[in-house]
């Protein structure tokens, strides 16, 4: 379970998160929607401590992420993350991209890491691309590679930061399908997304961010069918 | 007897004059070599750019030699070669010739790079406006390409300035040679080397910073 | 020319000292680049001073400094050490700037991605960032290696018997200065071509992406 209490985040003097309270139980798929710059992505970075926070707390399975004594590298293994810019490691083949961290972070042998990597690449539909360098993969394939890379650490939670926003339109589908597959397998997921159809069809709950606060959080039916907040109504009418 | 106004044991005011004169000679030989080298280098660069394979087979490898043999060897060779073919050159002149050619071999590459940096469509556009080949070179290639490689050229020029210290092996008394002579006499190596180093630094550092700031401004 | 074997052997000394100073220069240059990018205060000042001195004074000045300069304060180095120290000092300074450019060319998101997988800062740098930086600076690195070979010729001015020093010693004994230095020029040319060729072959093996 991920528990966020009173989270505040500043960039310099600019406050981007203004007191976030959010609980994500195991097995839930939560989508976060909202305008650009509303703080959605920053929240994800605060969950795995890629960004520091100024007030409040984030707990993952009871462990305080931002506490001084926390072994953040161990904790991050539980929290897989997929970025908007897929960030493949260009100097490694697809297989090496995925196998590297199981080997050096988890201490698996080369053979074990290879097996894990091959399995995860097959999982995301890249079984035929093991020895290919990222430069020879399409954006959609690189993003699936990034998902496989995160999955290889056997995370309990997956954080998706606008995983499809940087993709050409015709490549969005394959990545969403992979995310859908994960959701069906019961993975706990927090997805910052602009894909409203995905949010509606796949999520258990949807949170609407507006200027650094969660303005509305509810089931997809309520969020998309009967939005209460004025900002949300406006946001939805703008994107349709 | 020398006047005894010495502020450091052994080093006298007249010695500072001596160093300043030597520094002037460093500036002189550098400026002359860089000027000659740049003019020659741009012409060579243009030949390499336009000359296709003929130049690639002759001029290219020739210039490559000057970039692949230590300057000090080039200086010694030329200084000892000139009398063989009947030229009697003093160290200064030999230094200018070799530093100039060496500089030209480096500038040639920079200049060619500059010309290649100007895209073909842009040049075609210029020609389509009725500009002659030379007008295109003068008004399109020179300003655009020159801009692109100006920081590299500054790097080459400063390199030649620093390398001018090597002409001392021929006996030309530039700054570093003068320092060496003074060190032998006064036994104050740290002080004298610091003065010499500070002079080079004061010449090179501001110019390289200026080039870096220009590069930043032009690329952004 | 019966002294050719001596010259060739001295050529190996040249290559050896150039390689050694490059290795030292790479290690120190990397450290200087990282210090300049990530630290403040005296450490940053020290690194910046090193880089600017190495880049803005003649290599020969640096050589004299490690020779006479240190000698004045009681540190007497052998000719070999003087040349090695001066070359390493110079290479480190130039390479630091190359490395800095390389680091800046890698997007921050690469580090984030690596850290998000649970890698430590050290793992992320050594496995993800630095290998990519090396590809970016590979060409400048090769050039610097060539410079190191050419610069090592200054060794003859402090009595070190690398290729140039050996040539000078032989030439002054026989008074056939031009012939000896001409042969030496050819050997330098061959060494430089060898380095460039080897570098190209190595690049083809190293960088498959």
Helicity level of chain B, as a percent range? over 70%
Q: Given the C-alpha coordinates, what overall shape of chain B results? A: globular
Number of helices of chain A: 9
What is the CATH superfamily classification of chain A?
P-loop containing nucleotide triphosphate hydrolases
CATH level-3 fold name of chain B: MetI-like fold
What's the N-to-C terminus distance of chain A?
Answer: 33 Å
The helix content of chain A is 25-40%
Please tell me the overall pLDDT of chain A: 93
Largest interface, C-beta within 8 A: B-C, 36 and 36 residues
How many domains of chain A? The number is 1
Query: How many distinct helices of chain B?
Result: 9
Q: What is the tally of beta strands of chain A? A: 10
Q: Rough shape of chain A?
A: globular
The tally of domains of chain B stands at: 1
Main sheet characteristics of chain B = none
- As residue ranges, the low-confidence spans of chain A are none
Radius of gyration of chain B over all CA atoms, rounded: 21 Å
Structure commentary:
Chain C: InterPro entries: AA_ABC_transptr_permease_3TM (IPR010065), ArtM/GltK/GlnP/TcyL/YhdX-like (IPR043429), MetI-like (IPR000515), MetI-like_sf (IPR035906). Chain C: Residues 11-196 form the ABC transmembrane type-1 domain. With 240 residues, chain A is an alpha/beta fold. Chain A contains 9 helices and 10 strands. In chain A, the strands form 2 sheets. Chain A has a 6-stranded mixed β-sheet with strand order 6-7-8-3-9-10, with helices on both faces. Chain A has a 4-stranded antiparallel β-sheet with strand order 2-1-4-5, covered by helices on one side. In chain A, a hairpin with a 2-residue loop joins strand 4 (55-60) and strand 5. With 220 residues, chain B is mostly helical. In chain B, helix 1 packs across helix 5 and helix 6 (120-128) packs across helix 7. Chain C has a domain at 13-156: MetI-like fold (Orthogonal Bundle). Chain C has helices at 4-38, 41-56, 59-72, 79-105, 108-116, 121-136, 138-152, 163-174, 177-206. The mean pLDDT of chain C is 93. Chains in contact: A-C, B-C. Chains A and C meet through helix 2, strand 6, helix 3 and helix 5 of A and helix 5 and helix 6 of C.
């Amino acid at each position: 379970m991920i528990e966020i209490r009173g989270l505040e985040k500043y960039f310099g003097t600019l406050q981007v998160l203004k007191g976030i309270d959010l609980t994500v139980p195991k097995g839930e798929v939560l989508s976060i929607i909202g305008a650009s710059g509303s703080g959605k992505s920053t929240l994800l970075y605060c969950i795995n401590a890629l960004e520091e926070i100024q007030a409040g707390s984030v707990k993952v399975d009871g462990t305080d992420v931002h506490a001084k004594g926390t072994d953040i590298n161990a904790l991050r293994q539980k929290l897989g993350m997929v970025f908007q810019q897929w960030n493949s490691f260009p100097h490694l083949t697809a297989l090496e991209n995925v196998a590297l961290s199981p080997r050096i972070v988890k201490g698996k042998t080369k053979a074990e890491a290879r097996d894990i990597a091959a399995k995860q690449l097959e999982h995301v539909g890249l079984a035929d691309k093991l020895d290919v360098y990222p430069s020879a993969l399409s954006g959609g394939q690189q993003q699936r590679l990034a998902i496989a890379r995160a999955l290889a650490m056997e995370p309990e939670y997956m954080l998706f930061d606008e995983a499809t926003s940087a993709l050409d339109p015709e490549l969005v589908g394959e990545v969403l399908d992979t995310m859908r597959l994960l959701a069906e397998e019961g993975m706990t997921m927090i997805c910052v997304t602009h894909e409203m159809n995905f949010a509606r069809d796949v999520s258990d709950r949807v949170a609407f961010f507006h200027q650094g606060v969660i303005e509305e959080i509810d089931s997809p039916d309520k969020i998309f069918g009967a939005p209460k907040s004025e900002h949300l109504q406006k946001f939805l009418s703008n994107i349709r | 007897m020398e006047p005894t106004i010495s502020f450091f044991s052994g080093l006298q005011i007249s010695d500072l004059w001596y160093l300043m004169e030597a520094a002037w000679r460093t500036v002189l030989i550098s400026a002359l070599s860089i000027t000659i080298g740049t003019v020659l280098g741009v012409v060579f660069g243009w030949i390499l750019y336009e000359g296709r394979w003929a130049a690639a087979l002759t001029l290219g490898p020739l210039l490559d030699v000057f970039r692949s043999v230590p300057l000090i060897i080039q200086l010694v060779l030329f200084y000892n070669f000139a009398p063989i073919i009947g030229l009697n050159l003093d160290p200064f002149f030999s230094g200018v010739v070799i530093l100039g050619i060496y500089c030209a071999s480096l500038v040639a590459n920079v200049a060619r790079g500059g010309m290649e940096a100007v895209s073909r469509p842009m040049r075609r556009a210029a020609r389509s406006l009725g500009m002659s080949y030379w007008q295109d070179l003068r008004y399109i290639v020179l300003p655009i390409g020159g801009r692109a490689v100006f920081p590299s050229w500054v790097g080459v020029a400063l390199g030649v300035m620093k390398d001018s210290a090597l002409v001392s092996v021929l006996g030309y008394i530039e700054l570093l040679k003068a320092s060496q002579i003074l060190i032998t006499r006064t036994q104050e190596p740290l002080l004298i080397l610091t003065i010499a180093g500070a002079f080079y630094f004061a010449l090179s550092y501001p110019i390289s910073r200026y080039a870096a700031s220009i590069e930043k401004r032009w690329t952004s | 020319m019966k002294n050719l074997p001596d010259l060739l052997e001295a050529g190996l000394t040249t290559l050896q000292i150039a390689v050694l100073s490059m290795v030292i220069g790479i290690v120190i240059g990397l450290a200087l680049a990282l210090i300049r990018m990530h630290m403040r205060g005296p450490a940053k000042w020290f690194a910046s001073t090193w880089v600017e001195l190495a880049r803005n004074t003649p290599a020969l000045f640096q050589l004299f400094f490690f020779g006479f300069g240190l000698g004045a304060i009681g540190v007497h180095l052998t000719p070999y050490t003087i040349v090695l120290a001066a070359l390493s000092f110079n290479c480190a300074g130039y390479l630091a700037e190359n490395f800095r450019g390389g680091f800046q060319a890698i997007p921050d998101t690469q580090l984030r991605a690596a850290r998000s997988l649970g890698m430590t800062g050290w793992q992320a740098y050594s496995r993800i960032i630095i290998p990519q930086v090396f590809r970016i600076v590979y060409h400048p690195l090769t050039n610097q290696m060539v410079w190191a070979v050419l610069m090592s010729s200054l060794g003859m001015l402090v009595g070190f018997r690398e290729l140039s020093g050996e040539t000078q010693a032989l030439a002054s004994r026989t008074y056939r200065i031009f012939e000896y230095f001409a042969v030496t020029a050819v050997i330098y040319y061959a060494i430089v071509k060898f380095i460039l060729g080897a570098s190209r072959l190595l690049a083809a093996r190293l960088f498959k992406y």
